[in-house]
Design goal:
Helix content: 25-40%
CATH class: Alpha Beta
Number of strands: 8
Distance between the termini: 27 Å
Shape: globular
CATH architecture: 3-Layer(aba) Sandwich
Largest sheet: 8 strands, mixed
Number of helices: 8
């Protein structure tokens, strides 16, 4: 699969399956994948979607304006191999916004899968996520020492789970970018404040961008004015050494 995928070198998203093992049970999950043009090896971005995909499935979430595909395409256009694991095999239904520890396992295994793909530079891996995907990304980043960068887009508070995870912020080994719109909900803003304090007090490299142009949580549903900050952050930290 990896040789065919990289050799096609097309930014258009594909849906592919990858193996996962949860609670000692082997299975599969799908991922939205975009491969860049040009010669490999490529730096890679593992991007974790918001809970709207857990609720509505993929591509069902596009009915609510969530365009994971456009984020995938935009990252690939910048030269990155993009792997966006779809955490649920079937939609959980409207209103579902829960964190499940299986999500952490899925993302940990997605990173390992991407690092093993032909055409990917396993030393240049970034982890990014929006909303629930941001919470999952932060929890996963606490367990990895092989990430070049971590980007959190309006990370979910997760009924206090983000704050709980932040108490272990000293375990973060990669630079962190946090982006949030000031018109987002109070729990999101509270979580961002906790991350700012936790990472800052431990001297961890952090760039925090607060936008004030409106859009709330849905600002990150599609590529918008926030994109330039993410692009610059990844370019800084995923350069070949």
């Amino acid at each position: 699969m990896s040789v065919m995928l990289i050799s096609r070198a097309q930014a258009e998203p594909q849906q592919l399956s990858f193996p996962v093992k949860i609670a000692e049970r082997a299975g599969e999950r799908r991922a939205l994948v975009c491969a860049p043009k040009g010669p490999p090896p490529f730096a890679a971005v593992v991007f974790n979607h918001g809970s709207i995909v857990d609720m509505m499935g993929w591509p069902g979430a596009t009915q609510r304006g969530y365009r994971l595909d456009r984020v995938c395409e935009a990252l690939a256009a910048e030269g990155y191999f993009v792997f966006a694991p779809i955490r649920e095999n079937s939609a959980r239904g409207r209103g579902f916004q829960d964190y499940e520890d299986a999500y952490r396992e899925i993302v940990l295994q997605a990173i390992d899968h991407v690092k093993a793909l032909a055409g990917v530079d396993s030393s240049r891996i970034a982890l990014a996520g929006f909303s629930m995907g941001g919470l999952v990304s932060f929890k996963v980043a606490l367990e990895r020492n092989d990430l070049r960068a971590v980007a959190l887009l309006a990370p979910a508070f997760g009924r206090g789970l983000l704050g709980e995870a932040a108490t272990s912020a000293d375990r973060i080994s990669a630079p962190v970018l946090v982006m949030v719109e000031q018109s987002d909900g109070a729990p999101i803003l509270r979580g961002v404040g906790i991350l700012e304090q936790a990472l800052g007090s431990r001297g961890k490299p952090l760039r925090l961008v607060r936008y004030d142009r409106g859009g709330g949580h849905e600002l990150f549903y599609d590529v918008g004015h926030w994109w330039e900050d993410l692009k610059a952050f990844l370019r800084e930290h995923l350069v070949a050494r």
